[in-house]
Amino acid sequence: MQKRWNILEADAGKVSSLQQTLKIHPVLCRILVQRGIETYEQAREYFRPRLETLHSPWLMKDMDKAVNRILRATGQQEKILVFGDYDVDGTTAVASMYRFLKKFHTRLEFYIPHRYREGYGISKAGIDFAKENGFTLIISLDCGIKSVDLVRYAAELGIDFIVCDHHLPDETVPDAVAILNPKQKDCTYPFKELCGCGVGFKLMCALAERMDLPAGAAYEYLDLLATAIAADIVPMNGENRVLAHHGLIKANKNPNYGIKALATLSGLVKELHITNLVFMIAPRVNAAGRMDDARKAVQLFIAETAPEALHYAEQLHNDNTDRKEADKSITEEALASIRSNEEWIGRKSTLVFQPHWHKGVVGIVASRLIEHFYRPTIVLTRSGDYAAGSARSVPGFNLYEAIHACREHLLGYGGHFAAAGMTLELEQVDAFREKFESIVSASIEPRLLIPEIIIDAEISLKDIRQPIYDILCQMEPYGPENLRPVFLARRLQNTGYSKIVKEEHIRFSVKQDNVSITGIGFGMADKFPLLLQSTPLDIVFTIDENEWKDTKSLQLRVIDFRLSQ
After folding, report:
1. How far apart are the first and last CA of the chain?
2. Number of helices followed by number of strands (H, E) in the chain
3. Nearest 5 degrees, angle CA 40-CA 41-CA 46?
4. Final residue of a domain: which of 396, 419, 449?
5. CA spacing 20 to 30 A to 360: which of 15, 163, 389, 467?
6. Across the strands, what pairs with 493?
7. Are 256 and 227 part of one and the same domain?
8. 280 & 260 share domain
9. Distance CA 110, CA 200 (A)
10. Given phi > 0 = left and psi -120 to 50 = alpha, else beta, which region is 378?
């Protein structure tokens, strides 16, 4: 699939000024300027994130109300229920809050709604559980901002709510005792992009301060918070960067038993990086809710011994194995379905449906299909008497609006710009497919159907040296708004030693002005004939370190390449 290359610009004057100040390679200064780092002070905060720069939790609207209600509950020995969503953000938030409150309050339980029996967020079943078991306060984490009716229902039963959420509020918010959400219009908290676990962390910080607990009482859970930040794909700048940086230090020096157990089962023997949290830890936690019951993810993170944590980690690991098998087989079925229907191949959208597909992986499968057919995609399966599923978009296209335009075919739907879910009558699937295709065809810009690679800077091979790589490592943790820098090198020659490895990957060996370097291109074997031509190549890549037999060397991790113009 041909891709669009988009090379970012940077103000030359600002780059030059920063280079004079920092005395590092201009290509790095160019990338820093692109990321809003223009002065020595900004660079110092970026490269040396400090917990002291975190904002006061008391700047968040309703923080005093939340703290006062919790302290009243603990003082009067009320039963508190910590309630959270079934994904990584929700389960880490619940585990952190539960363990924190457990330091000074014993009448405490947690509740994670079942993905399929109760659905997303606060559930009536959860509130009924609270009533039946004598709970008078529920603290919801990573959910609740849209649960106006359910919070009212709880109040009618004599149960108070403290809502900790980070999702965008509607015009009407629940009538809770306190709502902690920096995205509220009248909340003056300076950083708006905390994840759900991050909002819970702020509440713990405020409680620790009010109760004169040690300064680090809430910091014990920074490794869980870093996992949530990584998994929830929130911007990796501002407070998130500080929290993720120190959370990774905690995860490597003195990790939560659950994180350590999952890392062990994942085969990780080296230092944990943010990518390990994203690709090794998070999928195993999410798999619990997708394939079975996410309660065990919280039990993993609140385990008080290594053997107990390993017990739950093995269950999550097995769930993830099942998830991968379901994901692989459904993706293969869906691709075969598209390829066997000539009319579908040329469409601007994809909608596939099979009643036997596992509901827990349809969102993942939608993302997989976009890797093959780059366009807005919906994957549906049967859920009871209805069809239900998930949608994923391509960058730049408002998926929620397109689905909203098809609402006459739907029983229910929700989501945002990039992802959504929906439920419909089984007999409406074909009509919904056609309407969705007509809406997407009429509204999507053609360029959005071609994958885009954002390139930070052009670089020469002679400049790919250890000092640059060392600084790139100091730019971690990477994530949205601070992605791993992507480079372009022009007019490289194949040395003749490039080859296909394991039938689907390319081991590169290229040179430029007598400087040669190796690289790896995963899944690129179909483009190998380009390397056999005598024409120079332009290659897009990140800079990586290859370790072989105790010897380390820099290499290119190739993202795309084409013949030079």
Report:
1. 19
2. 21, 19
3. 95
4. 449
5. 163
6. 511
7. yes
8. yes
9. 14
10. beta
Task: Write b or e for each residue in 3-42: b if 16 or more Cβ atoms lie within 10 A of its Cβ, otherwise e.
Answer: eeeeeeebeeebbeebbeebeebebbbbbbbbbebbeeee
Nearest in space to 138 (alpha carbons), one of 174, 172, 103, 171: 174
Amino acid letter, 89? D
Output the furthest CA–CA distance in the chain (Å, rounded).
80
- Residues counted in the chain: 565
- Whether 81 and 135 have beta carbons less than 8 Å apart is answered as yes
**Phi, psi (degrees; rounded to nearest 5) at 306:** -65, -45
Structure tokens at 70: 């919790």
The residues facing 421 across adjacent strands are 390, 414
The parent domain of residue 351 ranges over 341-449
Phi, psi (5° rounding) for residue 421?
Answer: -135, 160
CB 555 within 8 A of CB 517: yes
Quick one: 219 and 85 in the same domain? yes
Backbone angles phi, psi at 502, to 5 degrees: 50, 35
Q: Is the pTM of this model over 0.85?
A: yes
- Other residues' Cβ atoms within 10 Å of the Cβ of residue 213: 16
CATH of the domain at 82: 3.90.1640.30
DSSP 91: H
Q: Mean pLDDT in each 10-residue stretch from start to end of the chain (565 residues)?
A: 92 97 96 97 96 97 98 98 95 98 96 88 95 98 95 98 94 96 95 97 97 92 96 93 97 95 86 87 90 93 97 94 95 96 95 95 95 97 94 95 96 88 96 98 96 97 96 94 97 95 95 96 95 94 89 95 94
| Cα–Cα–Cα angle for 540, 543, 547, rounded to 5 degrees | 130
User: Distance between CA atoms of 108 and 74, rounded to whole angstroms?
Assistant: 10
DSSP states of 397-424 as a string? Answer: --HHHHHHTTGGG-SEEEE-SSEEEEEE
Angle between the N-to-C axes of helices 88-102 and 196-210, in degrees from 0 to 180, rounded to the nearest 10: 10
Whether residue 303 is found in the same domain as residue 191: yes
Q: Is the dihedral of CA 480, 485, 489, 492 positive or negative?
A: negative
Residue 54 CA to residue 239 CA, distance in Å, equals 6
**Residue 357 CA: distances (Å) to CA of 241, 332, 426, 529:** 38, 12, 14, 38
CATH of the domain at 411: 3.10.310.30
Q: Which residue has the tokens 């899944």?
A: 523
The residue assigned the tokens 């890392």 is 263
